[in-house]
Every structure is written in structure tokens, then in C-alpha cells.
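Q: Sequence in, structure out?
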Amino acid sequence: MPKVGMPDIRKPQLVQATMNVIERVGLHGASISLISKEAGVSTGIINHYFGGKQGLLEETMRAILREHSREITTALKQLSPDAHYQRINAIIDGNFNGFQTESEVVKTWLAFWSYAMHDPQLHRLQRVNEKRLISHLKIELKTLIPRSQASSVAHGIAALIDGIWLRGALNPRGIDATLARTIINDYLDKQIWYYDNLQG
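A: Exactly. Output:
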């Protein structure tokens, strides 16, 4: 976490610089020197406020996760609380549209995922994000399928989101949001049909 006193205007500037450098040279090549040059600040400022590259990477991922959460929350607020199927699609779309598909964000996400396996703090951030996704999905699914099965289907949708996003991120053509929704909706529709017929 950045120290108290870090000018608010500097945080987004340094976060953007970090993503830009990761996009160009990858995480391992993203040195404090390159990031500070990109942001137009001294390396001392980064070391002072973030404690170095690790702290800056954590703040960068927190910023991405905050924006991710904000976009999904905003989309959900625009829908009726009873529009559960549409709300699930808003959650899906939040992972495949807008900010989350910008090139520098995608490459930072990929770096974050690989790095999180070996770093407890980054792993914790990943777990928080995963739990938030599952929680959002379960709230909506409980009205469409038996409550006892909502967690299992939520994890299935989350796995599809992660897998499709990863495949798209590694594809030179990028992430296909329409295809993602089609695949995930096909899974969701089959689950709803199955449990409807099981009860019937």
C-alpha cells in the first residue's frame, strides 16, 4: 500500500506508467528506473511511497481491481433487482469489455496472475477478486436454480470467464466478448434447463 501523503494525482500516473512499461517489456523487465522515467518522476519517489517495485505492482493491481469492481457495480445498478439473467450477463460483460480489455491492462493481469502464485500478498488480492465474482454470481443464480447448486454453477461460470479471458488474452486477435457471452450463456441455459426439469 502507498504511504499516507502520496499525492492523489501521482497514484494514477504511476499506475498507468507501470502498466505501460509492463505492456512493452513484461513484468521482469519493468524496472523502477523504466517506470519512473515513464511517469516522469524520480526513482526515489517510488521507493519512498511504495517501498519499491513490489509495492507499486500491488497498488497497480488494486487500482485495476477497483476499476473492475466499479464497472460491474455500475452496470448492476442500471438493472432491475429482479432481472437476474441480465444481471449475470452484466457480470460476464464486465470481464470482457471496456477497461479490462485494454492492452496494457490485459498484460498487467497476465503478469499479476503468474506472479500471484509465488507472492502471498498478490495471491490474497487474487482470492479477494475471485470471492467477489463468485458472490455476485451466487446472488443472482439463487433465484434461477436451486440454492444448493448455486455455488457449483457460479464456480463453473467463473472458470469459463477465466479460461475464455486467458485464451483471448493470448490470442493475437484479442478477447471476443460476443463469443465469451455465447459460450457462458450456453452453459448457464443448460444448467437452468437441467434443474428446471429435475424439479419438474
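The chain is about 75% helix and 0% strand.
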